Amino acid sequence: MNLRAFTAERLNFHSWIKGSVNDVLVPIEAYHLYDPFGRRIKHETRFQYDRIPAVVELCIQAGVEIPEYPSRRRTKPIRMIGRKVIDRGGLIEEPQPGISANPSSLIDLDTHGACGRFPPPPPSDIPKIAQETMDAYETVKLGVTKLMDRYTVKACGYCSEVHVGPWGHNAKLCGEFKHQWRDGKHGWQDATVDEVFPPNYVWHVEDPKGPPLKGGALKKFYGKAPAVVEVCLQAGAQIPEKYKPMMRLDIVVPESEEAQLVA
């Protein structure tokens, strides 16, 4: 079948499939560095560095010990004049990654096929799990915000690449459309929390078992929320007040004919 003809027949309608954890929590990866102030990653050496979740890399640099991903711990401050490093304590050889006593620790970081690794919970436990998930989501977001106040994180202004460190890497991986003249170089700037721990916004559905949402003129009446919040709300969790205005819980969605009469 001609793919272009098939796309035209869909008339911009989505082709829905079963979602995964990565559709709810968007995975943002970054290079792991033994020494963030050490040698800068070059395009030719990019395969010598592991890619791990950016939140995990941020936690490692903040003090979390994972044997597979060692990190240099400094006892003396780095001396800088402006943006130039005067004394970084010397360059040392990176140690070989260790072997964890619990091999499953790295598997827990992998979200691929996560739903298949755990049996479905009984229906009576779903509201409790939803509330724990909602609380954990807020805890992680608050923790990332606090860590980013202390540790520098850079984000590309053209694509979704994130780098945890005082300056970005030199790997030419930016393929943003209409910016090919940059030869793949990233445009680094200070990252925001939503770039490191991005919320995937979805339409709020008042009745999950009801009819599908209608597009057109009614679209402006529907609220949105991060996918995690929407899933937890539908599962029976109490959501924070800050999300309720975004979800427009106090707005009555009119019928299609009534929407044309709304100013």
Automatic annotation (TrEMBL):
Name of the featured protein: APO protein 1
Q: Which InterPro entries match?
A: APO_dom
Lineage of source species: Eukaryota, Viridiplantae, Streptophyta, Embryophyta, Tracheophyta
Cited Pfam families? APO_RNA-bind
Q: Name one GO molecular function term.
A: RNA binding
Residue intervals of the APO domain: 1-68, 155-241
